[in-house]
Amino acid sequence: MLREALLALSASNQARALIMATPLTRGVVARFVAGETADDALAVSAQLIADGRMVTIDFLGEDTTDPDQAALVADEYVRLLSRLSAEGLASHGRAEVSVKPTAVGLGLADHGYKRALANIARVAAAARNAGTTVTVDMEDNSRVEATLRLVGELRADFPDLGCVIQSYLRRSAADCRVLAVAGSRVRLCKGAYQAPEDVGLSSRDEVDRSYARCMRILLGGGGYPMLATHDPRLIRIAGTAAGLAGRSPDSFEYQMLYGIRPAEQARLAASGAKVRVYLPYGSDWYGYLVRRLAEKPANLALFLRALSSRH
Ligand code: FDA
After folding, report:
1. Tell me, what's the pLDDT at 265?
2. Using CA positions, which residue lies closest to atom 24 of ligand 1?
3. For this structure, is 137 an active site residue?
4. Which residue among 231, 234, 255, 276 has the greatest number of ligand 1 atoms within 8 angstroms of its CB, and so is best to mutate?
5. How far is the CA of 279 from the centre of ligand 1 (A)?
6. How far is 292 from 60, CA to CA, in rounded Å?
7. What is the C-alpha separation between 272 and 239, in angstroms, rounded?
8. Exposed / middle / buried, residue 151 (Cβ in 10 Å: 0-12, 13-18, 19+)
9. What pLDDT shows up at residue 297?
10. pLDDT value at position 300?
11. pLDDT score recorded for residue 227
């Protein structure tokens, strides 16, 4: 119930305005977000990379309603990639970027698909010049079909363009079978959104079982799986499944969010696994923050304490 209410809140413009105007949320935001500027993202990336991890950087924002804004988001990524390259952080894909399709125009009424395609192509070309890659994030269920189509189309020119599969969707094992092919970079996560009963799994157990099933398909195929989870049980299963599939440690990676289970990130990296941290930056942190609160009630308590501590 609480999770549903919070996810609904993440789409509310009124709540967004209210919460973003409250300076006291900053402390909680800082736990999950590198900072507001590209400088902040570069500084945290450099630290994580020096510490043996890799990063995928997300310029925060979603549901863009203006074509010019969508193009500006792509511009920001292009500049960021050029800076990552200049600072030596992009080599060997140590720093890549993650892009939300609706941040670059997918939801626009006027040629949304075309605009998102062109904007992501621009970012992917900049990533190629920088010697690294792009992963296209997956948003709510209404965007899945268009996002997979968009990635499929762009892979003709950018074969290393990554996509995301969410195990809470009933369709996901079938999608994994299609995507588990040579050269295909696929991030597997549980999914941070809600979907109707006929489309999405509702119980945590079912979502976890679906994750394990999708993971085995991806690890058993010819692509490059990116296992995005903080769940200790699934991380254990991943290690075993990778061994059974004959995978070497450099043929897949674990991914976790910035600020979540950092000791586990460090432990996995020290064990020789590839570990990438999803690192968001920017001032439009509202939707991202609320999804993190929805995942863990303890985060909500932290947040409410921050809000009430001055009163
Ligand atoms: P689960 O939620 O069951 O958590 C397992 C354990 O991890 C918890 O018990 C807790 O210890 C810890 N944990 C998890 N979330 C936490 C939090 N917010 N705060 C503190 N501790 C927490 N989703 C999506 O729909 N589209 C996408 O493109 C992506 N991209 C993405 C990239 C990367 C790198 C990651 C790690 C995740 C995503 N996600 C995502 C989010 C994902 O779908 C999911 O919502 C979260 O990762 C939480 O799910 P877990 O697999 O961690 O399991």
Report:
1. 98
2. 191
3. yes
4. 231
5. 13
6. 14
7. 12
8. buried
9. 73
10. 77
11. 98
Query: Which stretches of the chain score pLDDT less than 70?
Result: 1, 22-25, 306-311
Confirm if 76 and 122 have CB atoms less than 8 A apart.
Answer: no
Residue 247 CA to residue 264 CA, distance in Å, equals: 21
> Which residue's C-alpha comes closest to atom 9 of ligand 1?
231
Query: What distances in angstroms separate CA 257 from CA 162, 219, 229, 296, one per listed residue?
Result: 17, 21, 8, 13
Question: Between 286-295 and 297-308, two packed helices, what is the crossing angle to 10 degrees?
Answer: 120
Q: Are 168 and 160 in contact (CB under 8 A)?
A: no
- Euclidean distance between the first and the last CA atom of the chain, given in angstroms as a whole number: 28
Q: What angle do CA 303, 296, 225 make, to 5 degrees?
A: 125
pLDDT at 14: 72
223 phi and psi, to 5 degrees?
Answer: -90, -165
- Residue 230: CB within 6 Å of ligand 1? yes
Of the residues 58, 137, 208, 284, only one is catalytic, namely 137
Query: Catalytic annotation on 236?
Result: no
Number of Cβ atoms within 10 Å of the Cβ of 194: 17
Our answer on whether the CB atom of 63 is closer than 6 Å to any ligand 1 atom is no
Structural domains in the chain, CATH included, are 34-284 (3.20.20.220)
Give me the catalytic one of 53, 185, 187, 276. Answer: 187
pLDDT of residue 310: 46
CA 73 to CA 126: how far, in whole Å?
A: 13
- CA-CA-CA-CA torsion sign (166, 169, 171, 177): positive
User: From CA 215, how far away is CA 42, in angstroms rounded?
Assistant: 31
Question: Residue 88: which of 124, 49, 60 has the closest Cα?
Answer: 49
- 193 phi and psi angles, rounded to 5 deg: -120, -175
Task: Return d(Cα 73, Cα 79) in angstroms, integer.
Answer: 10
The Cα 92–Cα 307 span in angstroms is 42
